[in-house]
Fold this sequence. Notes:
The chain is an alpha/beta fold. It is built from 10 helices and 21 strands.
Amino acid sequence: MDLKEKLVSSFMAFENNVDITSRVHDIRSEAIKTFEEKGFPTRKDEAWKYTSLNKLLKTDFTVFPKQDNSLEYSDVKKYFIHDIESYKLVFIDGKYSSNLSKTTHDGMDICLMSAALNKPKYRLIIDNYFNKAATKDSITSLNTAFSSEGAYIHIPKNRIVEKPIQLVYFSTGDESAHMHQPRNLVVVEENSHVQIIERHQSLTNNPVLTNSVTEVFAKKRAIVDYYKIQNDNHNASLIDNTFINQIQESHCSVHTFSLGGKLTRNNLKFYQNGERINSVLKGITIIEEKQHVDHSTSVHHIGPNCESHQDYKGVYGENATGVFNGKVIVNKEAQKTNAFQSNNNILLSDKASINTKPQLEIFADDVKCSHGCTIGQLDDNAMFYLRSRGIPEKEAKALLMYAFANNVLDSVKITKLKGRINKLIAEKLGVNIGFDL
């Protein structure tokens, strides 16, 4: 039995073990039908042309954990931004960990998706927002069919969440191979502001596959800053699907730091419904060996007088492979749109590769849109200058790569998080940089 057949046959058993409303049942049933019809994406699909799941899907993944596991904070402290006050939602092998988490219902809801799906007091939000931004492609539909746990965040009007929210998903590896399907819903009402940090971390060398879906709704003048830290081990694979729906004058940014993992696919889609909306998509990728990172981004400008800014930097060594497939769509009604898209890459090895495809689809005539990509190596003149000042070759390369990525790091608004990313990049480059950018 292949993985697709295993998942489809497991669906009924899954639904029998979770409490769900009739509406959620209908959504799940429709989603599993979509997945059964379409199956996993292949390279025949244009959006997956440069990323193959074939080898990954040959693994016999366990769909449900066989037992509940617990972790001590001291064992996993290093995976948190632990030197800041924050709310925390922590999951171990797909199950909520109450002793590692810090939730709240004090004027806002930062809690569990399982509670929101089943309790009447959350029904209005669930009915209005759950599965409304996510697309109906096969991989997202698979998550929808099995979604039962994850983060539920509802920030009411005129509320600034003073502490960041950390979402951390651990895999312990008790099974020989395990598949997770976390589902997150974030609703930020008018004039509110929230910062979210998300991380998926495997604590084992056993294969792990995570298929995550996050829906974000930013209402009028809302501000959402979302940070994704992807620095997993070489047997962990992640398909991260994030859908952001913005309305009037909202500002949403997503920073993605892809620094490790076997295969990482980031599907990031923004929908601008209104005027004077700003969307920011930035990312840094630094990988090596046979690691693979694929960024598939899309910003759909539906209303006029809006902006979007995409800036992705990649550094690829050894046999690493990168993909950037970025799209900007400007509707006929979206006049006065200002859209920028850039993808710049450095190859440190003759065997490393990058496939980049920036795209613009413009149906309006009064817009300012640009896109571009570069693929190259480190500047020989800059290297010579640094070496002539007594800087060793390894440190000189690191300095140049830090400078290369600096404009992405510069827009990180959480100081402690920025410091952590700096350290992770330094570790990735194998050097000790004596300053913070």
